[in-house]
Amino acid sequence: MKKLLSVYLVFVFSLLSSHAATIDTTPTWGGQDIGFIGTKGSKYVGQIFTVSSSTRIDQITFYLAHEAGSNPLQFNIQLRMWDISSNTPVGGDIFISPLQQTLGTGAAPIHPGFSVEPYTVNTGGIELLSGQSYIAFLSTINATFESSGWVGYAGDVYNGGQSAFVQQGASPSVSWTTGFPDPGGDLAVKMSFNIPEPSAYLLTSIGVLSLMRRTRRFLS
């Protein structure tokens, strides 16, 4: 009976772990950053990505630092669907975080500065569409004071998307430029996903538990 229970627990763990996925552009990233974002530059900077079979997004991480001697950089992390043909986001915000701000004393304007720090938001497991492109982006439009900073840049390392930004003063609805400062370049980002399969998990669990019950009756 104990052996059967152990097999069941191993199966459940493998089922859950096999449905987790990540997008991570940082394994070979050396800490480089680009800027400006905020008052001195773009108010919208983000990363385009494509959803795999793991469709529930749980977390988004960007890497940021504010300019030394200035206010912290205030920002929201937002998520919208992306239309590849028009190279623009479509629809409204799927997710928008509470207003965040960078910590510490800031960093000098040296690139690479090796000074950006991770900032993570939990999205609550929002369900996205498999095979669809989206953009996760930083927005400083809601900042309550002026400040500028940098965002981590990993180079061209991810095939499912690229970086994008809006030129200073332009509209975020139509005026995105992709692949900066290199064609196909990517921001330093991490995103975690899971695939919801409650029906398959439930049916399999019922079957295994039923087998355990029958085995127990037989043994007794």
Describe this structure in words.
This protein has 2 helices and 14 strands, in the order αββββββββββββββα. By secondary structure, it is of the alpha+beta class. β5 and β6 form a beta hairpin. The protein is globular and about 65 Å long. About 8% of the residues have low confidence.
Element order, helices and strands?
HEEEEEEEEEEEEEEH
The share of residues in helices is 10-25%
Proportion of residues in extended strands = 35-45%
Biggest β-sheet, characterized?
7 strands, antiparallel
Low-confidence stretches: 7-18, 199-204
Give the termini distance in whole angstroms: 11 Å
Q: How many extended strands? A: 14
Q: Summarize model confidence as the mean pLDDT.
A: 83
By DSSP (H or I, 4+ residues per run), the number of helices equals: 2
The dominant shape is globular
Secondary structure class reads: alpha+beta
Quick overview of this protein structure:
The chain is an alpha+beta fold. It contains two helices and 14 strands. It has helices spanning 2-17, 198-219, and strands at residues 20-24, 33-38, 44-50, 56-66, 74-83, 88-96, 100-101, 117-127, 133-139, 148-155, 163-166, 176-178, 186-187, 189-194.
